Amino acid sequence: MVLVRETVMADWQALRDIRLEALRDAPYAFGSTYADQVKLGEAHWRQRIARGGTFLAFVPEVSAPEPVGLIGGYPEEPGVVELVSMFVSPQARGHGVGEALIDAVIGWARARDATSVHLWVTETNKHACRLYERCGFTPTAERQPLPSDPALAEIGMTHPL
Ligand SMILES: CC(C)(COP(=O)(O)OP(=O)(O)OC[C@H]1O[C@@H](n2cnc3c(N)ncnc32)[C@H](O)[C@@H]1OP(=O)(O)O)[C@@H](O)C(=O)NCCC(=O)NCCS
Question: What is the 83 CA–ligand 1 centroid distance (Å)?
């Protein structure tokens, strides 16, 4: 069973811990680095929760009460929600947690009357690309260096709502 819910203030340490786990486990997937984010204090994580659109996933059979997944959505430009920070812990992968997290951000974007959800994904991250395609995202013509490792390229994907 996969449970997804939006973060509340009491989650700030759990949010920090899974975000740092993500940056350590999959540095090729994110524009930010562990070295930068490990320095951020409580106020940063609380602000991130306060702005809304951050979701955690729980699979009680796998690791209750700790979250096993993270995703974020934020308004990038009028009508467009940016999907960020997608991560599923290695022990919970392959069970649909990623899809449940994407559904949460799409629902959040719809509730804000967005007309599309956009994301950046490293072009060599085939598991993530296939998951996004299964969930209705299609590649755009956008391509840019990954900020944390410019030797890698990321591509844009979009999902109309
Ligand atoms: C990409 C990611 C979010 C997918 O989450 P998930 O909940 O495992 O998603 P799914 O259940 O749909 O499985 C996705 C793929 O992983 C495969 N998989 C299954 N078990 C797995 C395991 N134990 N370990 C790794 N991958 C596994 C699935 O077969 C599927 O493969 P395919 O679609 O390429 O054939 C997750 O692998 C992850 O967090 N990766 C590192 C961070 C990352 O890449 N984030 C994306 C940033 S844009």
Answer: 16
